[in-house]
Automatic annotation (TrEMBL):
It comes from Nitratireductor basaltis. One of its GO terms (molecular function) is isomerase activity. It comes from the Bacteria. This is Xylose isomerase domain-containing protein. Pfam families: AP_endonuc_2 (PF01261). Keywords: Isomerase. InterPro entries: IolE/XylAMocC-like (IPR050312), Xyl_isomerase-like_sf (IPR036237), Xyl_isomerase-like_TIM-brl (IPR013022). The keyword Nucleotide-binding does not apply. Residues 24-266 form the Xylose isomerase-like TIM barrel domain.
Amino acid sequence: MKLAAVTNEVAPLTGAGTLDTILRTAVDHGITLFEARTVESKRFPLLTGHAWEVLKGAQRKYGITYTAASAGNFIGMDVFSDMVALHKGGLWQMSMDMAEKMSTDTLITFAPQRSGTADKAEFEQVVNLLGDVVDSAATRGIKVQLENLPGTWADTSDSCLALLAAVNRDTFGYVWDTGNLYEAEQETFEAGFEKLKPYIRNVHLKDGQFIDGKMTWQHYGTGMTNVKGQIDALKSIGYTGTLALEAARIPHIEGDFEASLGYLRTIL
């Protein structure tokens, strides 16, 4: 398995001109794989010109490889929103263009929010929407990964499985985000893993637990999601893909990344 950092999860730096420090921090800890997400408070691909040049230049400067990019497609909207067409069109096109310039062949997408009705017809619209973005990416040699998120049509293990099976494209895989699943299901990963393991192409690692009814992110090994069990399960299927460290707590403080990375290396 390969460790990857995430652009907004390494250090609590969000201001202009801080990206280089974030990249260098991960490299200093032996990590040269990165997922591009939020950069200096702006979500990929809507970056400032300077941040974009730093992001691209890090490939030469630090030997960084971008394993995936995530534009946050369809977050916060249901399938009936007029924003969906903008995300499917301009935002997705820009994401593909910039992914090619970063030499990454993988984009991450989310599913739309469930509406108040959330019926079978709406599910079919979501399936068609995701199928369209996957097909458009495939024409350019880009693979797509579905990330689970509470409140969306890909919130629980069962709902993710339903979408993955219905879209049914060879270039459509799954980001196993165990922290988000725990938040949605309030149970550990085992049953969901058995259902989803054929689709797993990427892993987002978070740890935490519910405190006073609210999901609280914690350092790896101190929460209830069972990070060690997740690693053991991935080993059991011969998984060799990326483990993206979503190590930031809320509030994000200095040392979060280092603490969770240190624990993770003891169990790999």
